[in-house]
Amino acid sequence: MQWTNLSEQTVYENRWFRVNLADVELPDGRHLDHFLIRLRPVAVATVVNAANEVLLLWRHRFITDSWGWELAAGVVEDGEDIEAAAAREMEEETGWRPGPLKPLLTVEPANGLIDARHHLFWSESAEYIGHPEDDFESSRREWIPLKLVPDMVARGEVPAANMAAGLLLLHHMRLADG
Fold first, then answer.
1. DSSP for the chain?
2. Mean pLDDT along residues 116-126
3. pLDDT over 70 for what percent of the chain?
4. pTM
5. β-pair type (118-123, 42-47)
6. 51-60 b/e with 16+ CB inside 10 Å = b?
7. How far apart are the first and last CA of the chain?
8. I need a labelling partner for 107 at 20 to 30 A (CA). Which of 75, 76, 83, 137 fits?
């Protein structure tokens, strides 16, 4: 039951994304117009310290008018390495420079509408280099015990699905065996 994208035309474009209209053929031969958003890859990073605390940002999202915990994240610039973008975003948004980053997971948060892949990385060390350059990205930055993550996700305090998935995986990796 595969849908086939026969053609696309851009109806809006800026430096972050394109909105396209696709002519899609369904398996039974019918056609439908389907809007989609073409987005740059997103790079995400955090650190888990020796005390099993994870570095999070508390921020407001005006689109949903909601507050929640998130990881540092942003779009990958043209020609930029994804891992380097994750490190850059963490430094700019938290004031912490990560040690060597390890891939955590790659997810597609809304693949029925958007083609963006979110690449999550983590480190076991970080160096505080000063107040974050992009301090407008969050109200505060805190080290949160990883053991609290499942309950935070269950209460809706980590509303972004990509962030929740990454944090739950880190919790499993670091704490599941003891």
1. ---EEEEEEEEEE-SSEEEEEEEEE-TTS-EEEEEEEEE--EEEEEEB-TTSEEEEEEEEETTTTEEEEE-EEEEPPTT--HHHHHHHHHHHHHSEEESS-EEEEEE-TTTTTB---EEEEEES-EEE-SS-TTGGG-SEEEEEEGGGHHHHHHTTSS--HHHHHHHHHHHHHHHTT-
2. 96
3. 99
4. 0.89
5. parallel
6. eebbbbbebe
7. 44
8. 137
